[in-house]
Amino acid sequence: MSNPLQQQVTALDCPTRLGWLKLVLLSSSLAITACQSTSTQKIVTQKISTSTAATPRSTSHQSTASTTAYRPLAVKNAGIPGLTDFRWDLVSINSKNPQPFINRPYLFLQSAAKTISGSTGCNALTGNYQIAEPQALKIQALAGHMACEDALAQEAEIMDVLGRVTRYQLQQNMLYLYDQNGALLMTARAGQ
């Protein structure tokens, strides 16, 4: 049987242990989040083999130990400088100003995965894109299904426009999207 003083020390020690556990869990989750939110550069490793001879005093016979190490090599993104990995806030859709229903309509082209994400002002949009030649752009995207009052017409127009984009042009902080006939479909400004 333990004495009352030991029980009090153990009871006081328990919250300290709980506090340390919370601190460890919080720091672990922050470390994981930091790793996930790093640059979108791909990391490729290069295999490096090294041989080391055994020291003469360790054994009577000579042996060679081979170790393999990996050195990370940074590889540039396959994105288009100025186009990908930026938030593009929509300025016009078919010469009309877009309306922010729940949030401001925007596009984001991620170079690492060749995906597009954003918002129609009501629903999130996701999809992928392809760049076959300089300034040629093809987008395939879908929007969510949440209903916002008076937002369906704008959402349908954004999705229609994105499906018809074949070319883009960058001028300073502006992105212009065109159809196959050269008609301007959408304008966007680099987000803050």
Automatic annotation (TrEMBL):
Residues 49-66 have a biased composition (Low complexity). Residues 83-187 form the DUF306 domain. Residues 46-66 are annotated as: Disordered. It comes from the Bacteria. PANTHER family: DUF306 DOMAIN-CONTAINING PROTEIN, HEAT SHOCK PROTEIN HSLJ. It comes from Alkanindiges illinoisensis. InterPro entries: DUF306_Meta_HslJ (IPR005184), HslJ-like_sf (IPR038670), Hsp_HslJ-like (IPR053147). Gene3D superfamilies: 2.40.128.270. This is META domain-containing protein. It holds the Pfam family META.
